[in-house]
Design a protein that fits this description.
Elements (H helix, E strand, L loop, with lengths): L1 H26 L9 E7 L7 E2 L2 E2 L5 E8 L3 H33 L2 H17 L4 H59 L5 H20 L2 E5 L5 E5 L6 E4 L2 E2 L1 E6 L5 E7 L2 E5 L4 H37 L12 E3 L6 E3 L20 H13 L1 H41 L3 H35 L1
Antiparallel strand pairs: 1-4, 2-3, 5-6, 6-7, 7-8, 9-10, 10-11, 12-13
Helix pairs in contact: 1-9, 2-4, 2-5, 2-6, 2-8, 3-4, 3-7, 3-8, 4-5, 4-6, 5-6, 6-7, 6-8
Length: about 450
C-alpha cells in the first residue's frame, strides 16, 4: 500500500506542476515576448527492477523533471533576419522622403524656369525698367530657393546624425541588458521557471537588436547568447556577461561609419540590416543630393555672372555680377540691386539692344539646370517608390516569419484548455489513487 500511496502522491505533485504551467500559459497568452511552456514528465523507475518468475517490480510513479520553453531557434532567427531587412528599408524610406521634401519644398525647378523666362521679357523690351525689376525679383527667388534647399538638406543631415546616435545608444543599452541576462542564465537552474523567464527576456532583447542592426546569434548549453554585429563574420558585440560599445562618425564626404569597441580593440562594422544600415544608405543619398544641388548652384551662378560680364547694362557700362556666394555653394544672394545693371546689350549695343540675353538663353540650354533639377527629383522619387514596394514585400515576409514562430512558441488557448482538462483529470485520478490506497490500508488494519 505504501507503493500505491507514493505513486499517487507523485502524480498529484507532477500534475499540480503541469496545471501550474498551463495556468501560466493562459495568463500570459497576450503578453509580448512570452514563450509557451510545457512540463516535462518522466517515470520514476525502481533501480534494477526486472520481470522475474517470482513477480513484477513496479515503477514508483511520475516526476516533473522541469519546465521547458516550446521554441524553435531557427524560426526565431528568421524573424530577426526579416526584422533587420524591413527596418533597413523603412529607415531608408524615411530619408528618401525627407530628401524629396527638401528638393521640392522650395520649388527650385520652378524658380529657375521663372528666372530664365523673366530674361525673355527683358529681351522683348530692353529699355523698360519694369521687366528688369521683375528679372531681379526672379533672381532673388532663385537665390532663396537654392539657399532653402541647401539648408533643408543640412537639416536632414543633422536629423540623421541624431537618429544614428540614438540608435547606437539604444544598441549599447540592449547589449548591456543582454550581458546581464546571460549572467543570470549562467546561474539559473535549467528547466526552471526562472530560466524560462530569462530566456524570454534574451529573445526579446535579440529581436530588438535586430531592428537596429543585423545580428548573428549563437547559444551555449546554458542558453547564453553570443552576438555578432554585421553578420556571422562580424565582431562579437556581446559574449557572456560582457558587452561592447558601438560608436558612430560622419566622414568629410558625408558618408557614415560605425565601429565597435570591446576588450580594448576598435573594429569597424558594416551593418547590412536594421536602422544602422538604413542610416548608412540615407547618408549616401543625402550626400549625393547635396553634391548635385551644389554643382547646379555653382554652375548656375558662374554661368549667369559670366553672361553679365560679357554684356553692357542700360547705361553702357560693363555688366557686374548678379549673384554672390557665401561659404557654401547654395548660400546665394543677389548682389545686383539696380535694375538698370542687367547687361542685356552686347558690346557696342545701345539701350534697345538685347543681343547679350541670347547668351543667357544659350546658357540655359547648355547648362540644363532645370533638367538636372527635375532629373534629381525624379530619380529620388523613383527610388522612393521602389523602396516602398520592397518594404511591402518585406513586411509580408516578416509577418509570415512571426506567424511561423508563434505557431510553435505562441500560446493557443484551445490547446491550453485541452491540456487543462487533461491534467485536471490526471490530478483527480492521482488523488483517487491515494484515497483508494488509504481505504484499502484501513480495511486491512480493521481486519487485524
Amino acid at each position: 500500500m505504501s507503493d500505491l500511496l507514493g505513486i499517487g502522491a507523485s502524480g498529484v505533485r507532477a500534475y499540480q506542476t503541469a496545471l501550474t504551467t498551463v495556468s501560466e500559459n493562459i495568463a500570459n497568452a497576450a503578453t509580448p515576448g512570452y514563450t509557451r511552456r510545457s512540463t516535462a514528465l518522466s517515470e520514476i523507475t525502481v533501480a534494477g527492477g526486472s520481470i522475474t518468475t517470482r513477480g513484477i517490480n513496479n515503477g514508483s510513479g511520475v516526476l516533473a523533471t522541469g519546465v521547458n520553453r516550446v521554441t524553435d531557434m531557427f524560426r526565431a532567427a528568421d524573424v530577426r533576419s526579416a526584422s533587420a531587412d524591413l527596418s533597413r528599408t523603412e529607415t531608408g524610406i524615411t530619408w528618401l522622403d525627407r530628401i524629396e521634401g527638401a528638393l521640392t519644398g522650395n520649388q527650385l525647378g520652378d524658380r529657375l524656369t521663372s528666372f530664365f523666362n523673366s530674361a525673355k521679357a527683358v529681351a522683348a523690351d530692353p529699355s523698360a525698367t519694369t521687366p528688369r525689376t521683375a528679372m531681379l525679383e526672379s533672381a532673388t527667388s532663385v537665390a532663396n530657393a537654392f539657399a532653402g534647399t541647401g539648408k533643408a538638406l543640412a537639416s536632414i543631415t543633422a536629423d540623421l546624425d541624431t537618429t544614428a546616435e540614438n540608435a547606437v545608444q539604444t544598441l549599447d543599452q540592449l547589449g548591456a541588458a543582454l550581458a546581464k541576462v546571460n549572467d543570470g542564465l549562467g546561474r539559473a537552474t535549467p528547466g526552471t521557471t526562472g530560466a524560462a523567464q530569462l530566456a524570454d527576456q534574451r529573445d526579446q532583447l535579440l529581436e530588438q537588436m535586430s531592428a537596429i542592426s543585423d545580428v548573428s546569434v549563437a547559444l551555449d548549453t546554458a542558453g547564453r547568447a553570443t552576438v555578432r554585429l554585421g553578420g556571422s563574420a562580424g565582431p562579437v558585440f556581446v559574449g557572456g556577461n560582457q558587452a561592447g560599445h558601438v560608436s558612430y562618425t560622419r566622414n568629410d564626404d558625408g558618408t557614415v561609419a560605425f565601429s565597435l569597441q570591446r576588450d580594448g580593440t576598435n573594429v569597424a562594422i558594416a551593418p547590412q540590416g536594421g536602422v544602422l544600415a538604413g542610416v548608412a544608405d540615407g547618408a549616401q543619398r543625402i550626400a549625393a543630393a547635396r553634391d548635385q544641388v551644389n554643382s547646379i548652384a555653382s554652375q548656375f551662378v558662374a554661368g549667369v555672372n559670366g553672361v553679365q560680364a560679357q554684356g553692357r547694362d542700360l547705361d553702357g557700362n560693363v555688366g557686374t555680377a548678379m549673384f554672390a556666394v557665401g561659404t557654401k555653394p547654395t548660400e546665394i544672394t543677389v548682389s545686383l540691386t539696380d535694375p538698370r545693371g542687367v547687361a542685356a546689350a552686347s558690346v557696342g549695343g545701345g539701350p534697345r539692344n538685347n543681343a547679350n540675353l541670347a547668351n543667357l538663353d544659350a546658357l540655359r540650354s547648355a547648362g540644363g539646370f532645370e533638367a538636372k533639377t527635375s532629373g534629381l527629383v525624379a530619380s529620388n522619387a523613383a527610388t522612393l517608390a521602389g523602396r516602398r514596394t520592397v518594404a511591402e514585400a518585406q513586411s509580408s515576409i516578416r509577418d509570415g516569419t512571426i506567424a511561423a514562430r508563434d505557431a510553435v512558441s505562441g500560446v493557443n488557448l484551445d490547446n491550453e484548455a485541452v491540456d487543462l482538462l487533461r491534467f485536471q483529470q490526471a490530478y483527480q485520478a492521482s488523488s483517487r489513487v491515494i484515497q483508494v490506497a488509504r481505504e484499502t490500508l484501513q480495511s486491512i488494519l480493521n481486519i487485524q
